[in-house]
Specification:
The complex is a heterotrimer of chains A (245), B (211) and C (477). Chain A folds into 2 domains: 119 residues; 106 residues, Rossmann fold. The longest helix of chain A is centred in the C-terminal third of the chain and has 18 residues. In chain A, 50% of the residues lie in helices and 12% in strands. Chain A has 13 helices and 8 strands. In chain A, the strands form 2 sheets. A 4-stranded parallel sheet of chain A has the order 2-1-3-4, sandwiched between helices. Chain B has 211 residues and is of the alpha/beta class. Chain B has 7 helices and 11 strands. The longest helix of chain B has 14 residues. Chain C has 3 domains: 134 residues, no CATH class; 232 residues, NagB/RpiA/CoA transferase-like (Rossmann fold), CATH 3.40.50; 73 residues, no CATH class. Helix content of chain C is 51%, strand content 10%. In chain C, the strands form 2 sheets. A 6-stranded parallel sheet of chain C has the order 1-10-7-4-2-3, with helices on both faces. A 4-stranded mixed sheet of chain C has the order 8-5-6-9. In chain C, α16 packs parallel to α19. The longest helix of chain C has 23 residues. The chains are: A alpha/beta (245), B alpha/beta (211), C alpha/beta (477). The interface between B and C is large, with 72 and 93 residues. β8 of chain B pairs antiparallel with β9 of chain C.
Chain lengths: 245, 211, 477
């Protein structure tokens, strides 16, 4: 029996309950027995990325303790959060310490959702149906830090009745950047506006992304621009059976 | 004896004047040349892509080509390198015959500035980028390829080299080298490409057929 | 470290007052360069290999910088050049002024050099009664305009041709038409005379070849050739980080530089200058000086992470792909060097009290690292410098405002003591309910207001944990 632990992320926890529910159901349908450690809070990325490395460690320890109770792999709906765990947790502790060993162990078994489905479970078709014109925003950390260049499109390819339209500047940052939206709000807004403009120009009625952070930013931007384009997390699209009786 | 900058560098790096140099990383292999004809074509093609005017000529047709160039461009004054090849081709006498004023290549810069045309050879040619490589000496003054608004260079296939490695191996001991890759250009004003900002506006490259 | 005092760089302030013409002008330039670069990279199957070798050579050189600089000095002196060492910007200015004075220089013509901008050389020369004229067309324009560069390669790209025509008309007392070709012709004519009359040519260098004491200077316009060929005196001011081991190494960098910068295979003119002229008739300077500039670079060498910035070959590719830079332009970085490289260089050269806002001028998207020809890990260095600002390190004490630091402490506490976070998660939806309008939270109290002024927040649904608990006890649906 495949087991996995749910890493819901702080943004998922606060804003995307239905996405987390869909993630749960999708994984269970694939035969994964899920565990949800309730002590989890946040991976610590917002503190780490802003230079507060000392303050990050306490948060990291909380995360690791929560997920160390089981040795099952950890799956999360965010490339940037998973990258934090995989690539930066071991850096936070001196080599040779028990914390460092724990971090290395946890890092090795933490996966982003699409990565887990396509590269670990080796599944590309989740039986989704989504009869819409869909475009894709490639989130920066998902793309560059995690190196996930094809997984999302592979999964979208298998969705029935989905018409894919490319997004001009698909890989350009949407301006979320975590705390960047509140550190330099005007620049963030300008970047968001550019992304929203291009999404509207793509002709799609849906834009899909693999990051809750980007999603918050883009969805809000589309709403502000008066657009009806639906912004969704890929998990919600993959859970869709729209039009099926 | 040393100086404060070097001292600071050594202190920062934790080195002394006795610390040895670690091995410099290996460089990749040079490009392999194709046939002379192919390399020649490639070279001339690249020059044309840069808005240079490139053509193959037999030595016999140089005089006629020079006549056209002078007429098309209203050449009144010209300067050229002292070169046995140019003597052979009779460049001097052709120009004089066309009424072009000849200015010595070692003339004062203000005199040379008035020239419309500067004629040089080249020491090496790089086909990949359409580059002319010119040394500098009293016989090959730098300003001839720089001051006049038109630069004509008469070259031969023997000057072709496969890649930078070969040129550098042969020429690195020169005290001056210039790579000329097309006419002078800028895009500083609204990204509009303008030729001939400070260097020559027109670059003519005549490749002499092997004979 | 530089002895000059610097104005605080208020990136946030600048970014809130970006003139509307800047982003579109900058984006036109950057998209052209990005497209050009992509075409050139596609032509070279060994591009990634070249990047790695370029990175390795630069790192090797940095780690052995004392040896290579010493070699360079010996070689350039053997070729008849005169080498000077400048620990600080003031040292460098004094050296150049001294040389100018000794030669009775009244007019100096300058080829584009970021090192001379770094040390404020033009001001120093003007103050000493010497006219210092920029000759690169873009630099000439912004010198007339009295502003800084908006882009590393095309510094005047933010100005429309009508503005440049007006500028020429006013400053040069002529009737200049709003036509780029005509304007370039006017500049050519005026600068011709200056090239011929100048007593001194000032340049930088793209590379210093230690093997033979050679300067490599790359330009497109020919002004670099004019400045180093016409005057009797040539003075080069070059950062010590420009040194490379030998000509073989140079082959790599010449393949990387123009392609990364503008999408050209090679820039129009590449000069290789070793000392002064050797014969009377060949043209070129009778006397050649090189000022090797430290100005904080040797201090940067101490930092094993930060010193990767010294690998930079000043191509500007990082700026061309940076979405932050493309929306604010060069001025917002408050220094002669902008974009991602500016965000990691200025804090290390000018210090954090001046530049603490710059490491945060990024979303860490990583597009810059993908295109850097020498593989500088810019996002890693940005985080490294953020750490210096937020909590200090071996090289500096923290400069983060106390309020932000305190907030980070509170956030850390709430996230580490998971009962606090979980309690907050249960309560927040209840409190935030009053802000809900039409399924969104369009405005919220500070600090969330910094988000909501640009776009609404989604509602705090936060009910997964309860759903999971119910499910676990009652069975799955």
């Amino acid at each position: 029996m495949t087991q996995a632990q749910l890493f819901i992320t702080c943004l998922g926890d606060q804003f995307y309950t239905s996405t987390l529910q869909n993630m749960t159901r999708l994984l269970e349908c694939l035969g994964v027995d899920l565990v949800f450690p309730p002590e989890q809070t946040c991976c610590g990325q917002p503190l780490f990325n802003n230079g507060f490395e000392d303050q990050t460690r306490a948060v990291t320890l909380n995360f690791m303790r929560a997920f160390a109770k089981s040795d099952a792999p950890i799956v999360g709906p965010s490339g940037s959060c998973v990258s934090m765990v995989k690539h930066h947790y071991p850096e936070l502790f001196p080599a040779g310490t028990p914390e460092h060993s724990l971090a290395t162990d946890i890092a090795a078994r933490t996966f982003e959702f699409t990565e887990y489905i396509v590269n670990v479970l080796k599944i590309t078709d989740l039986g989704a149906v989504y009869p819409h014109k869909v475009t894709y925003h490639a989130s920066c950390h998902y793309l560059r830090e995690m190196g996930l260049k094809t997984e999302a499109k592979t999964l979208l390819n298998a969705v029935k009745e989905l018409e894919f339209v490319p997004l001009n500047e698909e890989e350009t940052c949407c301006g979320f950047g975590g705390a960047f939206t509140v550190t330099y709000p005007e620049v963030s807004r300008a970047m968001m506006d550019n992304k929203v403009k291009r999404i509207i120009a793509s002709g799609a009625d849906t834009v899909v992304t693999c990051e809750p952070g980007c999603l918050m930013n883009i969805a809000g931007g589309l709403y502000k621009a008066g657009s009806n384009i639906h912004a969704m997390h890929i998990i919600d699209l993959l859970a869709s059976k729209e039009g099926v009786a | 004896m040393t100086n404060p900058v070097i001292e600071n560098i050594r202190r920062s790096l934790g080195r002394t004047d006795q610390t040895t140099l670690s091995l410099r990383p290996v460089i990749y292999e040079s490009r392999h040349p194709e046939s002379v004809d192919s390399e020649t074509e490639r070279f001339l093609d690249e020059v044309r892509k840069l808005s240079g005017i490139a053509q193959k000529l037999t030595p016999e047709s140089v005089t006629a080509a020079l006549k056209s160039l002078v007429a098309e461009n209203n050449i009144c004054k010209a300067t050229l390198w002292h070169s046995p090849l140019f003597e052979q081709l009779g460049i001097d006498s052709t120009l004089r015959g066309l009424g072009v004023d000849l200015v010595s290549p070692t003339a004062d810069k203000r005199e040379m500035e008035l020239c419309d045309l500067g004629i040089t050879e080249a020491d090496y040619l790089l086909p990949e980028t359409g580059t002319l490589v010119l040394r500098s000496s009293a016989e090959k003054p730098r300003a001839v390829s720089l001051l006049p608004r038109i630069h004509l260079t008469i070259v031969r296939p023997e000057m072709l080299r496969a890649d930078l490695h070969q040129v550098f191996a042969e020429a690195k001991d020169s005290h001056y080298l210039v790579f000329i890759t097309g006419p002078s250009r800028t895009a500083d004003i609204e990204l509009t490409v303008t030729l001939g900002v400070h260097g020559p506006k027109n670059l003519y490259v005549w490749m002499l057929d092997q004979s | 470290m530089s002895d000059d005092t610097h104005t605080y760089i208020g990136f946030e302030e600048y970014s809130e007052h970006v003139p509307p013409s800047i982003p579109s002008a900058v984006q036109q330039a950057t998209s052209r360069f990005v497209d050009g670069r992509a075409a050139r990279v596609a032509e070279l199957p060994q591009w990634e290999e070249l990047r790695q070798i370029g990175s390795d050579i630069r790192l090797h050189t940095i780690e052995n910088m004392d040896v290579y600089l010493t070699r360079f000095e010996t070689a350039v002196q053997a070729a008849g050049g005169i080498a000077h060492w400048a620990s600080t910007a003031e040292d460098a200015r004094q050296i150049v002024l001294q040389i100018a004075k000794e030669h009775n220089v009244k007019l100096a013509v300058k080829s584009k050099s970021m090192a001379t901008e770094e040390i404020g050389l033009n001001h120093a020369l003007e103050a000493a009664g010497i006219e210092a004229l920029e000759t690169d067309l873009g630099e000439y324009i912004i010198q007339l305009a009295g502003t800084g560069p908006s882009h590393i390669i095309v510094p005047a790209v933010h100005l429309k041709k009508e503005e440049i025509a007006a500028l020429f008309s006013k400053k040069l007392h002529i009737d200049a038409p709003a036509d780029p070709i005509e304007l370039a012709r006017i500049a050519r004519e005026i600068l011709r005379e200056k090239f011929l009359a100048a007593g001194m040519g000032i340049s930088g260098a793209n590379f210093l070849v230690a093997e033979t004491g050679t300067l490599v200077i790359v330009t497109n316009e020919g002004n670099g050739r004019m400045c180093t060929t016409m005057p009797e005196l040539h003075v080069a001011v070059v950062g010590i980080d420009k040194v490379i081991p030998d000509w073989e190494s140079l082959t790599v960098f010449l393949k990387l530089l123009a392609r990364s910068a503008t999408g050209q295979k090679l820039s129009t003119y590449t000069q290789f200058i070793t000392g002064p002229r050797q014969a009377e008739g060949e043209f070129g300077p009778k006397e050649f000086h090189i000022v090797l500039l430290d100005n904080g670079r040797s201090k940067i060498l101490k930092d094993p992470i930060g010193r990767d910035v010294l690998k930079c070959i000043r191509c500007g590719a990082c700026a061309n792909v940076c979405p932050v830079y493309k929306n604010v332009g060069g001025f917002a970085y408050g220094s002669f060097i902008s974009g991602p490289i500016g965000a990691i260089l200025s804090p290390q050269m000018l210090g954090m009290p001046t530049a603490r806002e710059l490491p945060y001028a990024s979303t860490l998207c990583g597009a810059c690292a993908d295109v850097c020809p020498v593989k500088i890990p810019i996002p890693t260095i940005l985080r490294h410098l953020r750490r210096r600002v937020a909590q200090g390190d071996d090289f500096a004490t923290p400069t983060m405002p106390a309020l932000i630091h305190a907030t980070a402490g509170l956030v850390s506490l709430a996230l580490a003591q998971n009962w606090i976070y979980r309690l907050g998660t249960r309560l927040l939806p209840f409190f935030m309910r009053i802000f809900k309008r039409d399924g969104w939270i369009p405005s919220a109290p500070y600090p969330l207001s910094r988000w909501t002024k640009a776009r609404p927040l989604p509602p705090f649904t936060a009910s997964f944990r309860q759903w999971w608990n119910v499910r676990s006890t009652k069975g799955k649906e």
